[in-house]
Each structure stands twice: as structure tokens, then as C-alpha cells.
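so the lab meeting is tmrw and i was supposed to have these ready like two days ago... anyway. pasting both below. for each one the top line is the aa sequence and the line under it is the C-alpha cells. i havent really looked at them closely yet so no promises
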Amino acid sequence: MGFKQKLLGVRSKLIGENSTEKLIKRGLKVGKNFNRQSRCIIDGSHCWLITIGDNVTFAPRVHILAHDASTKRHLDYTKIGKVNIGNNVFIGAGSIVLPNVEIGNNVVIGAGSVVTKDIPDDSLAVGNPAKVVGNVQEYLNKQKKLMETRPVYDASYTLTGEITDVKKEQMKSELQEGIGFVK
């Protein structure tokens, strides 16, 4: 077996065994318009305890856990708990959602957060452990206002829009002073 075939086999084991489709067959509940980006882990060993609503995005490297094996060696039992994620939820890159957590509707979880407790509807939550720091509408209003003074780029400035080297350099130059927005 060649290197490429071995690499594809490893990739299949890492990703294929826990593809969203396979997890659904095992009992994971997923609503419409679920966007699971690269290297997300959804607990394959207890996926039937996890429910994901409509219009949910997991940014890269999000982990959703329905079990906690910290007790296994000492008690010979693993803690388990349901995870419910509502509708219109964004979970930022590198975030971890632990067992026995409910995330409400219209929620944004900031990158790198560790969600250890329930997050109510319409919340912006960040940190480790994640804490509610505002509501989603306030956050969106603040970002919308920022769009009035910062660079805003259309879809031609993305990989799927076949961004050019000239546009890449333009973005780098215009973003020297801070954040921008791309379609």
C-alpha cells in the first residue's frame, strides 16, 4: 500500500467513522442547514444523547462531548449527559461543549470557549468557562455599526470567489488598522 493510500485510510478513520451521516445513523439528531466545518469532533460513543437544531454552524475544531471519562479509572463508570443545541447557533473555533449542557436559540459562542453550563436564548457567551457577556442583537448591532467604517469585501475576495493575488494584497493593506468583513 502506497503512502497516499495509507494517508487516505488514516483520514477515513479520523473523519469517516464519525461523519455526520454515520453519527445520525447511530442516533445523533440534526436539524436543517447544519454546517460542520473541518476537524470538528462530535462524541461518536454517545451521539444519541446529542441534539443539534436548525441553522447551526460549528467552526473548525469544535468538540461536542456527551461523556466524561474522568471517573472511569476510579469508579469504573463514565459520566454521561445530554447536549442540546438550539436553532440559529454559531459555535466558534476550538470551543468545547461538555455533557449535560443546553445551548438556547440564537446564540453565539466565542472561539475557544468551554461551555460547562446552560446558555440561555439570545446570548453571546465567551471564555473558559463560558459566560454570557451580552445578547446576540447587541453584538450584531455593534458589528453592523463597525461595517460603516471598516473595509467590507464581496465574495470575490474569498477562495470560492477565486480571489486574485492583487485582492489578497489589497486586503492585507486595508486590514493593517483592524478588522474588516467579507461576504
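ok protien two:
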Amino acid sequence: MLVEFSTLPDEARVWIYQASRSFSPEELSEVKMLLNEFIEGWTAHGSDLRAGCEIRYNRFIVLALDQTITAASGCSIDASVSFIQQLEKKYNITLLDKMNVSYKQGDFVAYKPLSDFRKMAKQKAVSKNTIVFNNLVTNKYEYENNWEVPASDSWHARFM
């Protein structure tokens, strides 16, 4: 069951998929429609899942699920990953590679392999004050409060 992202509780489980590039305006419109269609039919053991989504900075797909009504099952999580894989193929984009880092450079969102980010930290090209995206957040509250943070407040701090 598709609901507005903003109406989901703070405890809603969150999955964040960072894209290797920004979606074009046409792609954004399509992806949002496909996400909504996916969520409308998303179930766990035959029960509808109350979920919502948003796309941030034209490149982060955020999927959230209210597990107080129906929890995600292994099959429902597999279905969401399969859906994301379909988006990867359709748009020739990477969404599932967790070995990449996104961070802000002014208003621009940069995307680099983790090894490059480490080198940049050593060279002081990024610092503990660099705004990074902590895609390891697990619920809506963490997403809204601890997703976009200085590197010093994230797992990225180990490289600074």
C-alpha cells in the first residue's frame, strides 16, 4: 500500500540506494512512477506492505516501510532488490554497489569509489567537515537526522 513518505512513522525501516549518476528529469519522472507501481503491489506473505518512497538530489532512492503493521519478509526484501536491479538495467546505472561514497562538494553531490575517497582524505581533499551521506541508516528517524552529516559524525570518520 503506497503512502506519502512523510506519513510513515519514525521507526519505519529505510533502504537507501545511491545512484552512480543523477537521473535526468525524464528518468526521474519514470522512476518515481515505477517505484509507486512497485510499492502498490509490494507484499509480504500475501499482506500489503505500507510503504513510501522519495528521491533525493536526483540520485538517492529512499524506500521506507512501516513494519508496525506488516514486517518485511525475506521474499519481500528480495522483491525490492530485484526491482532495484531492474532499474539498474533499464537506466544503465549502479544502485546496489555499497563500495562507493557520495558526498557534497558545495551544492554538487560527488560519487567516488571508497578507495578514491580514502586517498582524498589522506590528501586532505575531503575533511571531517565534508558532508557525507550515511546510507547505513536503518529507519526514518535516522534518515532524517543522521543521513546527511559531517564525515566526523559518520562511519566515514575512520578515513579522516
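from a quick look at the 2nd one: The mean pLDDT is 94. Residues 74-91 form the longest helix (18 residues). will dig more after coffe
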